[in-house]
User: Fold this.
Amino acid sequence: MSAPILSVRDLVVGIGPDAASPIVLDGVSLDIAAGETLCLVGESGSGKSVTSLAVMGLLPRGALVARSGRVLLEGEDLLAADRRRLRALRASRMAMIFQEPMTALNPVMPVGRQIDEVLRAHTSLTPAERRRRVLSMLEQVHLPDVARVFASYPHQLSGGQRQRIMIAMALILEPKLLIADEPTTALDVTTQKEILRLVHELQEKQGTSVLFITHDMGVVAEIADRVCVMHQGTVVETDTVDAILRAPRKDYTRRLLSAVPSLTPRAPRPVASAEIVLETVELGKVYARRRFLRRAEETVAAEAVSFALRRGRTLGIVGESGSGKSTVARCVMRLVDPTAGAIRVKGRDISSLSRSALQPHRKRIQMVFQDPYRSLNPRVTVGESIAEGPTNYGVPRDAAFARARSLLEIVGLPPDAITRYPHQFSGGQRQRIAIARALAMEPDVLVADEAVSALDVSVQAQVLALLDDIQERLGVSLLFITHDLRVAAQICDDIAVMQKGRIVEYGAASEVLTAPRQAYTRQLLDAAPGRDWDFARFMPREPAAPAAAPVADVAKPSGGH
Assistant:
């Protein structure tokens, strides 16, 4: 067998140079052969990203230090290379695609110039030759109108297009090793499928080896040749993808796979109440962009959106990025004002109420955002964050804090959490705090906008179980916005599928996900990564027979649909 492109041997990374300080990576070893895709999987904090940063020589200086071990790229020890040598190797022989392109790309420079920087730093090509090379690479990553994209700024491109720019930048010099750190986590299923296909296509064309870091086992099933499972800074299991998915040897790997939500919908829950707590009728939102001495440009973000949500039920809104899901959520919350239709909370239309008149209704409907670290105030304690809403509505401070303590217990956090700050918790714990804060207002409806999309599968499973338990205990209704059909299958009673601002299919989850009537819904299901696997049972998934849901399961909006 030929020597591996990348060989990591007994890598130890610690916090700072002091030998007595904690270890982050403890003896990590892995190999990647030429043209192979190795998926590095594990929970948040397992050491996946630190491993990739150590390979690239990008460990934060003074914070993390590679204490021992070897990282060999085509036989050259990267840990022994100086900073100048590492700069020469980056992009030419190894490259990295980061998770969030908006933070990796320069916002004040056209993307074409940013790709051109790689060629200026590593080649002697003329400006005209570099431009031709960049335009050719943009075509290879299947971007439209490459001359326009070349001159565009990052904010003028979609999320999928920005990720294609990152791929073009990483592969333009045809490196031997590509490291992809969660490059599809924030993308919808169809864009995700396109990006995975693109990486595989370019990998075959250039013969690149890929270290793909992910917590999405569906992605692993789609692209991996071999899988390396990490836990608490160590490698617990490495094997072929088929062996890992069918016969995992370690308990941790089995638990990780068992936490992956199934694409088969859960059994329909009985209808406990006929009360409709949230309803939209022909809801519409048009954004107008006004320009000096020009006619306003209008973008229809939502059009004729009608649905109804009963007490204690979960309605999922699914669709691609740009389909209008989040716009509907913001309109329902009155974070933006709708331009048409009605929004009824417990029968009262709030769509045209003024800010002051809306105030009494705010407590009836609360929101859980995607990123709890950004939605929680880092300067105040968890207890103050949870108690703030009730005290604003006149609840005595002592009573509000007592309620905060009981809610922290409900969401599974210790009593001392009330005096701590958001940065002292993990991502999953912060999302539990955000849920507790929303519940403090005793709402009838929770709106969850991609509330679990950034969490690894085991934490995601815990948060989904928590939401289900809260609904059972408190009778709260849930409007759940997601692009993850697996999550929708496990938490939603009913599903509305959105495309280009309109609902194209609406019904019981057991019907929509097993016997979709619309081609677009079938397209979404076909694009779901790992759709052929039942991860919890360690075997390929059997096609589910369509489950008939009672007619009463889906509340039809009074305004028609």
Notes: The first strand starts at residue 6 and ends at 15. Residues 137 and 168 are 6 Å apart (CA to CA). Confidence is low (pLDDT under 50) at residues 545-553.
